[in-house]
Amino acid sequence: MRLITDSGDNIGLVRAEAAFGLADEAGLDLVEVSPGQIPVCKIMDHGRAKFEAQKKAAKARKKQKVVEIKEIKLRPNIDQHDYEVKMRAVSKFLGTGDKVKLTIRFRGREMAHQELGMQLLHKVRDETAEVAKVEFLPKMEGRQMTMVIAPLQVK
């Protein structure tokens, strides 16, 4: 096997018994780093290496942002002020890096005018074009029309 010391020096090819002896002499563990035709082993403190790997993984998890999908529910004949309030919520969600699912629910005779819902979703798409991209195009699912938009850059 190819042996590497705890300081990173490459000793070269040695027998397994000699490698175990050197590791025991140093008071450390012999860890197989890379299996293969000629395995590569390193003399190291395995418990400490494992602990440091866990700390590094925890630090990476702490820094990452979990993207959530926020839902905004609309009606096909929404009033202008109500629409503006919903759009402020959409821009706030997009600003924090979350995806936004826009849902339009049709009730009763509104089902005959699905083009109003499509026009509303296209209006939202056009207004948020500089800060968001459409991830899922508008589509009907039963009595609901949905569209998902995502921010252009995640913060």
Pick out its properties.
about 160 residues, four-stranded mixed sheet, 8 strands
Show the helix and strand layout.
Elements: E1 2-4, E2 10-13, H1 16-26, E3 29-34, E4 40-44, H2 46-63, E5 69-74, H3 80-95, E6 99-105, H4 114-127, E7 132-141, E8 144-151
Parallel strand pairs: 1-4, 5-6
Antiparallel strand pairs: 1-2, 3-4, 6-8, 7-8
Task: Describe the model.
- A four-stranded mixed sheet has the order 2-1-4-3.
- The mean pLDDT is about 90.
- Helices cover about 40% and strands about 30% of the residues.
- It has four helices and eight strands.
- Strand 3 and strand 4 form a beta hairpin.
What is the N-to-C succession of helices and strands?
A: EEHEEHEHEHEE
Mean pLDDT: 90
State the end-to-end CA separation: 47 Å
The low-pLDDT segments are none
The helix tally amounts to: 4
Q: SS-based structural class? A: alpha/beta
Note the overall shape: rod-shaped
Read across the widest sheet, the strand sequence of neighbours is 2-1-4-3
Biggest β-sheet description: 4 strands, mixed
How many DSSP E strands?
Answer: 8
**Computed Rg:** 29 Å
Query: How would you classify the quaternary structure?
Result: single chain
| Residues in helix, % | 25-40%
- Report strand %: 25-35%
